[in-house]
Amino acid sequence: MVTVKIDGENRQYPKGTLYETIADDYQEKYHHWIAAVVENGKIKELTKKVNKDCEIKFITLQDKIGHMTYVRTALMIMLKSIEDVIGKEKITKLKVDFAIGQGYYCAAEGDFKIDGKLIEKINERMNEIVAAKIPITKRPYSVEEAMELFHRQGMTDKEKLFKYRRSSFINVYCMDGYYDYY
Known about the structure:
By secondary structure, the protein is α+β, with helices and mostly antiparallel strands. It has helices spanning 19-26, 64-86, 116-132, 143-152, 156-162; strands at residues 2-6, 9-13, 17-18, 34-39, 42-45, 49-50, 54-60, 91-100, 103-110, 137-142, 169-175, 178-180. It contains 5 helices and 12 strands. The strands form 4 sheets. Strands 2-1-7-4-5 form a 5-stranded mixed beta sheet, sandwiched between helices. A 3-stranded antiparallel beta sheet has the order 10-11-12. A two-stranded antiparallel ribbon has the order 3-6. The model has no long low-confidence stretch (mean pLDDT 92).
């Protein structure tokens, strides 16, 4: 068992408990969804496990970091859904180009037509992914491994970006075979 201090209260949890499980225990005390935790001053995803005595604070969607986490998650779910619905082989370009205010400009090109019916199917797939609680995992890759991975995924813009990366490792996120970098 480990002792976790939350809001001045000490609670006991089995070693290896997901932060998501702990967040579920406290969610009703917060007006906004819990998106991540800060453990002893370090931000951790909810999919990480508590392995030692610690103090945690919750990051909610109201917090800037929590909102950014939510947006990145939503974008990843949307991009994966687009690939699932259209089929990767029919897509020649798919990326989030830039933000305008609260919105994002996305570019999609290939052997498909964007219309209301396609948008509806993409939205349905997004809801299926959320309902299935498909996990998003984070793993460090060497720069060379990341470049090869994104080359295979057809994400040549990210592959080019990594050529100028100074650190030797890059955190890559994966959701059911869809990889991305933020």
